[in-house]
Amino acid sequence: FGLTGHDPLPEVDHDTLETYHAHLQTNLSFPFEAEHTPESGHLFRHSRTVRVTGLDDADEEPMIDDECGILCEARMEGQVVTLAFGELENAKPNRQIVADYCYWFWNHR
User: Are strands 48-54 and 69-76 parallel, antiparallel or unpaired?
Assistant: First the structure.
């Protein structure tokens, strides 16, 4: 976002999601393994290991949903699925960049 050490993080909106998407696209190493834990109203949340293959469908605009944030494509249980990037954890080797996005997305909405 071009912030200095004293600037607050911006609120999540469509424009900031597009900016963050470009940052992730440039700095992530694909594919990578991660744990996916869907955000839901259930008391018991089940995590599954997924293999994240990218942020976009190659023929479309960035996959961004104003409610779910940045979306990604992944393989889970032999199927290609679209997941909310903010629901990923323990991403190897992208642990810090994924954790930074999740912190921003869930705390600045």
Answer: antiparallel
Q: How far is CA 97 from CA 41, 58, 79, 86, 92, in A?
A: 26, 22, 25, 11, 10
Please list, residue by residue across 14-48, b when 16 or more beta carbons sit within 10 angstroms of its beta carbon and e when fewer do.
Answer: eebbeebbeebeeebeeebebebeeeeeeeeeeee
Please name which of 7, 4, 32, 3 lies closest in space to residue 98, comparing C-alpha atoms: 32
Indicate the pairing of strand 88-92 with strand 32-36.
antiparallel
What digits encode the pLDDT tens for the residues 4-13?
778 888 899 9
d(C-alpha 31, C-alpha 52), whole Å: 5
Give per-residue pLDDT as tens, 32-41. Answer: 999 998 776 5
